[in-house]
Design brief:
This protein has 8 helices and 5 strands. It is α+β, with helices and mostly antiparallel strands and 307 residues long. Strands 1-3-2-4-5 form a 5-stranded mixed beta sheet.
Amino acid sequence: MTNGASNDSRSSRNGRREAAREKARQLRVEQKKRDRRNRVFVQGGIGVAVLAALAIVAIVIVNSIRPPGPGPANMASDGIVIGTGLKAVTTASLAADAAPVPSKPDPSGSVVSIRLYVDYLCPFCGQFERTNATQISQMANSGAATVEIHPIAFLTSHSAGTKYSLRAANAAACVANDSPNQFYKFHTSLFANQPAEGSAGLTNAQINKLVVDAGATHTSEIDKCIDDGTYTTWVTNATDRAIAGPIPNSNVPKLSGTPLVLVNGKQYTGSLTSATDFKAFVLQAQGQAYSTATPVPTSTPTPTATP
Protein backbone atom coordinates (compact mmCIF):
# COMPACT_ATOMS: atom_id res chain seq x y z
CA MET A 1 0.00 0.00 0.00
CA THR A 2 2.79 2.37 0.89
CA ASN A 3 4.66 1.76 -2.39
CA GLY A 4 1.50 2.19 -4.50
CA ALA A 5 0.58 5.47 -2.83
CA SER A 6 4.14 6.69 -3.30
CA ASN A 7 4.08 5.85 -7.00
CA ASP A 8 0.71 7.59 -7.44
CA SER A 9 2.09 10.65 -5.67
CA ARG A 10 5.13 10.79 -7.95
CA SER A 11 2.97 10.37 -11.05
CA SER A 12 0.72 13.17 -9.89
CA ARG A 13 3.69 15.50 -9.32
CA ASN A 14 5.18 14.60 -12.73
CA GLY A 15 1.86 15.32 -14.37
CA ARG A 16 1.63 18.70 -12.72
CA ARG A 17 5.18 19.55 -13.78
CA GLU A 18 4.43 18.57 -17.39
CA ALA A 19 1.26 20.60 -17.33
CA ALA A 20 3.20 23.57 -15.95
CA ARG A 21 5.86 23.19 -18.60
CA GLU A 22 3.22 23.01 -21.33
CA LYS A 23 1.49 26.08 -19.93
CA ALA A 24 4.79 27.95 -19.80
CA ARG A 25 5.54 26.93 -23.38
CA GLN A 26 2.14 28.18 -24.53
CA LEU A 27 2.70 31.48 -22.67
CA ARG A 28 6.10 31.90 -24.37
CA VAL A 29 4.55 31.25 -27.78
CA GLU A 30 1.77 33.77 -27.10
CA GLN A 31 4.29 36.34 -25.86
CA LYS A 32 6.40 35.93 -29.00
CA LYS A 33 3.29 36.44 -31.12
CA ARG A 34 2.45 39.60 -29.15
CA ASP A 35 6.03 40.84 -29.52
CA ARG A 36 5.88 40.33 -33.28
CA ARG A 37 2.57 42.17 -33.51
CA ASN A 38 3.92 45.04 -31.43
CA ARG A 39 7.00 45.34 -33.61
CA VAL A 40 4.81 45.51 -36.71
CA PHE A 41 2.62 48.17 -35.10
CA VAL A 42 5.61 50.21 -33.95
CA GLN A 43 7.33 49.99 -37.32
CA GLY A 44 4.08 50.81 -39.07
CA GLY A 45 3.56 53.76 -36.77
CA ILE A 46 7.05 55.03 -37.45
CA GLY A 47 6.46 54.65 -41.16
CA VAL A 48 3.21 56.58 -40.96
CA ALA A 49 4.88 59.29 -38.88
CA VAL A 50 7.73 59.56 -41.39
CA LEU A 51 5.29 59.77 -44.29
CA ALA A 52 3.28 62.42 -42.45
CA ALA A 53 6.42 64.44 -41.75
CA LEU A 54 7.49 64.17 -45.40
CA ALA A 55 4.04 65.29 -46.49
CA ILE A 56 4.25 68.34 -44.21
CA VAL A 57 7.71 69.21 -45.55
CA ALA A 58 6.45 68.84 -49.11
CA ILE A 59 3.51 71.16 -48.40
CA VAL A 60 5.81 73.76 -46.85
CA ILE A 61 8.19 73.59 -49.82
CA VAL A 62 5.37 73.86 -52.34
CA ASN A 63 3.86 76.82 -50.51
CA SER A 64 7.17 78.63 -50.07
CA ILE A 65 8.52 78.07 -53.59
CA ARG A 66 5.89 79.40 -55.94
CA PRO A 67 6.09 78.45 -59.58
CA PRO A 68 6.94 81.39 -61.82
CA GLY A 69 3.85 83.36 -62.73
CA PRO A 70 3.14 86.37 -64.94
CA GLY A 71 4.54 89.67 -63.73
CA PRO A 72 2.31 92.60 -62.82
CA ALA A 73 0.86 94.77 -65.54
CA ASN A 74 2.53 98.16 -66.06
CA MET A 75 5.93 96.89 -64.89
CA ALA A 76 7.37 95.44 -68.09
CA SER A 77 10.78 96.96 -67.29
CA ASP A 78 10.71 95.51 -63.74
CA GLY A 79 9.65 99.02 -62.74
CA ILE A 80 6.69 101.33 -63.23
CA VAL A 81 7.10 104.62 -65.13
CA ILE A 82 5.21 107.63 -63.73
CA GLY A 83 4.78 110.64 -65.98
CA THR A 84 2.65 113.73 -66.52
CA GLY A 85 -0.12 114.10 -63.96
CA LEU A 86 1.52 111.33 -61.92
CA LYS A 87 -0.14 108.86 -64.28
CA ALA A 88 1.49 105.52 -65.00
CA VAL A 89 2.71 104.47 -68.41
CA THR A 90 0.71 101.33 -69.12
CA THR A 91 2.38 98.13 -70.31
CA ALA A 92 1.17 94.57 -70.67
CA SER A 93 1.97 91.91 -68.09
CA LEU A 94 5.02 89.86 -69.02
CA ALA A 95 4.81 86.10 -69.30
CA ALA A 96 6.38 84.03 -66.52
CA ASP A 97 9.78 83.52 -68.15
CA ALA A 98 9.87 86.60 -70.38
CA ALA A 99 12.79 89.01 -70.11
CA PRO A 100 11.97 92.55 -68.94
CA VAL A 101 11.76 95.28 -71.57
CA PRO A 102 13.85 98.35 -70.61
CA SER A 103 12.02 101.65 -70.81
CA LYS A 104 13.11 104.00 -73.60
CA PRO A 105 14.72 107.33 -72.67
CA ASP A 106 13.23 110.47 -74.19
CA PRO A 107 15.24 111.05 -77.38
CA SER A 108 14.65 114.82 -77.45
CA GLY A 109 16.36 115.44 -74.12
CA SER A 110 13.44 117.56 -72.95
CA VAL A 111 12.17 115.05 -70.36
CA VAL A 112 14.49 113.94 -67.59
CA SER A 113 14.51 110.22 -66.77
CA ILE A 114 14.75 109.49 -63.03
CA ARG A 115 15.02 105.83 -62.07
CA LEU A 116 14.88 104.61 -58.49
CA TYR A 117 15.74 101.12 -57.21
CA VAL A 118 14.41 101.09 -53.66
CA ASP A 119 13.77 98.70 -50.79
CA TYR A 120 10.86 99.84 -48.63
CA LEU A 121 12.71 98.82 -45.46
CA CYS A 122 16.01 100.49 -46.43
CA PRO A 123 16.61 103.51 -44.14
CA PHE A 124 18.78 105.26 -46.75
CA CYS A 125 16.01 104.87 -49.32
CA GLY A 126 13.68 106.43 -46.78
CA GLN A 127 16.02 109.38 -46.32
CA PHE A 128 16.24 110.01 -50.04
CA GLU A 129 12.49 109.67 -50.60
CA ARG A 130 11.46 111.91 -47.73
CA THR A 131 13.98 114.52 -48.88
CA ASN A 132 13.10 114.48 -52.57
CA ALA A 133 9.57 113.09 -52.95
CA THR A 134 7.98 116.53 -53.27
CA GLN A 135 10.28 117.89 -55.97
CA ILE A 136 10.31 114.57 -57.87
CA SER A 137 6.50 114.48 -57.87
CA GLN A 138 6.39 118.09 -59.06
CA MET A 139 8.77 117.33 -61.93
CA ALA A 140 6.83 114.23 -62.96
CA ASN A 141 3.44 115.91 -62.54
CA SER A 142 4.44 118.79 -64.81
CA GLY A 143 5.89 116.51 -67.47
CA ALA A 144 9.45 117.74 -66.94
CA ALA A 145 10.55 114.26 -65.82
CA THR A 146 9.48 110.67 -65.63
CA VAL A 147 10.18 108.68 -62.49
CA GLU A 148 10.58 104.93 -62.84
CA ILE A 149 10.34 103.01 -59.59
CA HIS A 150 11.79 99.51 -59.17
CA PRO A 151 10.69 97.83 -55.89
CA ILE A 152 13.54 95.68 -54.60
CA ALA A 153 13.50 93.06 -51.83
CA PHE A 154 17.08 93.52 -50.66
CA LEU A 155 16.46 93.32 -46.89
CA THR A 156 13.97 90.45 -46.72
CA SER A 157 15.80 88.82 -43.82
CA HIS A 158 16.01 92.06 -41.78
CA SER A 159 12.46 92.22 -40.40
CA ALA A 160 12.23 89.71 -37.53
CA GLY A 161 11.12 86.91 -39.82
CA THR A 162 8.12 88.69 -41.41
CA LYS A 163 9.86 89.31 -44.78
CA TYR A 164 8.65 92.90 -44.82
CA SER A 165 10.80 93.96 -47.78
CA LEU A 166 9.31 91.20 -49.90
CA ARG A 167 5.76 91.84 -48.71
CA ALA A 168 6.00 95.60 -49.30
CA ALA A 169 7.49 95.15 -52.77
CA ASN A 170 4.75 92.63 -53.57
CA ALA A 171 2.16 95.17 -52.40
CA ALA A 172 3.69 97.78 -54.70
CA ALA A 173 3.40 95.34 -57.61
CA CYS A 174 -0.24 94.66 -56.67
CA VAL A 175 -1.04 98.38 -56.79
CA ALA A 176 0.85 98.79 -60.07
CA ASN A 177 -1.22 96.00 -61.57
CA ASP A 178 -4.68 97.04 -60.35
CA SER A 179 -4.48 100.78 -59.64
CA PRO A 180 -1.38 102.15 -61.42
CA ASN A 181 -2.35 105.83 -61.31
CA GLN A 182 -2.34 105.72 -57.49
CA PHE A 183 1.02 103.95 -57.39
CA TYR A 184 3.16 107.01 -56.71
CA LYS A 185 1.04 108.12 -53.76
CA PHE A 186 1.14 104.61 -52.31
CA HIS A 187 4.90 104.45 -52.88
CA THR A 188 5.53 107.68 -50.97
CA SER A 189 3.13 106.53 -48.24
CA LEU A 190 5.18 103.38 -47.65
CA PHE A 191 8.19 105.59 -46.94
CA ALA A 192 6.21 108.09 -44.88
CA ASN A 193 5.21 105.12 -42.68
CA GLN A 194 8.50 103.25 -42.98
CA PRO A 195 9.25 100.86 -40.09
CA ALA A 196 12.71 100.56 -38.56
CA GLU A 197 15.10 98.04 -40.05
CA GLY A 198 15.11 94.95 -37.84
CA SER A 199 11.51 95.44 -36.74
CA ALA A 200 8.60 93.25 -37.86
CA GLY A 201 7.45 96.00 -40.20
CA LEU A 202 3.87 96.80 -41.13
CA THR A 203 1.29 94.05 -41.12
CA ASN A 204 -0.62 93.22 -44.29
CA ALA A 205 -3.68 94.86 -42.76
CA GLN A 206 -1.71 98.08 -42.21
CA ILE A 207 -0.39 97.96 -45.79
CA ASN A 208 -3.94 97.44 -47.04
CA LYS A 209 -5.00 100.59 -45.18
CA LEU A 210 -2.26 102.58 -46.94
CA VAL A 211 -3.67 101.30 -50.23
CA VAL A 212 -7.09 102.70 -49.32
CA ASP A 213 -5.58 105.97 -48.08
CA ALA A 214 -3.79 106.36 -51.43
CA GLY A 215 -7.18 106.39 -53.14
CA ALA A 216 -6.55 103.13 -54.99
CA THR A 217 -9.27 101.47 -57.03
CA HIS A 218 -10.01 97.73 -57.06
CA THR A 219 -9.04 97.53 -53.39
CA SER A 220 -10.57 94.09 -52.84
CA GLU A 221 -8.38 92.64 -55.60
CA ILE A 222 -5.33 94.44 -54.21
CA ASP A 223 -6.04 93.21 -50.67
CA LYS A 224 -6.22 89.62 -51.91
CA CYS A 225 -3.07 90.10 -53.99
CA ILE A 226 -1.23 91.38 -50.90
CA ASP A 227 -2.51 88.63 -48.61
CA ASP A 228 -1.80 85.89 -51.16
CA GLY A 229 1.68 87.23 -52.00
CA THR A 230 0.76 87.00 -55.68
CA TYR A 231 3.91 88.68 -57.01
CA THR A 232 6.50 87.55 -54.46
CA THR A 233 8.18 85.25 -56.98
CA TRP A 234 8.28 88.06 -59.52
CA VAL A 235 9.77 90.46 -56.93
CA THR A 236 12.46 87.91 -56.06
CA ASN A 237 13.30 87.37 -59.72
CA ALA A 238 13.36 91.12 -60.47
CA THR A 239 15.66 91.65 -57.49
CA ASP A 240 17.96 88.86 -58.69
CA ARG A 241 18.06 90.41 -62.17
CA ALA A 242 19.09 93.77 -60.75
CA ILE A 243 21.76 92.20 -58.53
CA ALA A 244 23.16 90.18 -61.44
CA GLY A 245 23.11 93.24 -63.70
CA PRO A 246 23.72 95.06 -65.86
CA ILE A 247 21.37 97.94 -65.10
CA PRO A 248 19.73 98.94 -68.42
CA ASN A 249 20.37 102.36 -69.98
CA SER A 250 23.28 103.11 -67.65
CA ASN A 251 26.92 102.28 -67.06
CA VAL A 252 26.12 100.67 -63.68
CA PRO A 253 27.21 97.00 -63.85
CA LYS A 254 24.81 95.72 -61.19
CA LEU A 255 22.80 96.66 -58.12
CA SER A 256 25.06 96.50 -55.08
CA GLY A 257 22.90 98.44 -52.64
CA THR A 258 19.85 100.64 -52.31
CA PRO A 259 18.88 103.25 -53.14
CA LEU A 260 20.24 103.26 -56.65
CA VAL A 261 19.30 106.63 -58.17
CA LEU A 262 19.83 107.23 -61.87
CA VAL A 263 19.20 110.47 -63.73
CA ASN A 264 19.39 110.08 -67.49
CA GLY A 265 21.38 106.91 -66.86
CA LYS A 266 23.97 108.56 -64.58
CA GLN A 267 24.22 107.46 -60.96
CA TYR A 268 23.57 110.04 -58.27
CA THR A 269 26.07 109.63 -55.43
CA GLY A 270 25.45 112.91 -53.59
CA SER A 271 23.77 113.61 -50.28
CA LEU A 272 20.61 111.66 -49.53
CA THR A 273 19.34 114.42 -47.27
CA SER A 274 19.91 117.48 -49.48
CA ALA A 275 17.14 118.30 -51.92
CA THR A 276 19.33 121.10 -53.31
CA ASP A 277 22.14 118.70 -54.23
CA PHE A 278 19.80 116.34 -56.01
CA LYS A 279 18.08 119.16 -57.91
CA ALA A 280 21.47 120.45 -59.08
CA PHE A 281 22.34 116.95 -60.31
CA VAL A 282 19.05 116.75 -62.21
CA LEU A 283 19.62 120.15 -63.84
CA GLN A 284 23.15 119.17 -64.82
CA ALA A 285 21.93 115.91 -66.36
CA GLN A 286 19.18 117.76 -68.17
CA GLY A 287 21.65 120.25 -69.60
CA GLN A 288 23.87 117.44 -70.82
CA ALA A 289 20.87 115.74 -72.41
CA TYR A 290 19.95 118.92 -74.24
CA SER A 291 23.48 119.33 -75.56
CA THR A 292 23.75 115.73 -76.79
CA ALA A 293 20.20 115.21 -78.02
CA THR A 294 19.80 114.42 -81.71
CA PRO A 295 18.60 117.59 -83.40
CA VAL A 296 15.17 117.41 -84.91
CA PRO A 297 15.64 117.61 -88.69
CA THR A 298 14.07 120.64 -90.37
CA SER A 299 13.04 120.87 -93.95
CA THR A 300 14.83 123.30 -96.26
CA PRO A 301 12.35 125.51 -98.12
CA THR A 302 12.36 125.11 -101.89
CA PRO A 303 13.28 128.39 -103.62
CA THR A 304 10.46 129.84 -105.60
CA ALA A 305 10.86 131.53 -108.90
CA THR A 306 10.90 135.29 -108.92
CA PRO A 307 7.81 136.50 -110.68
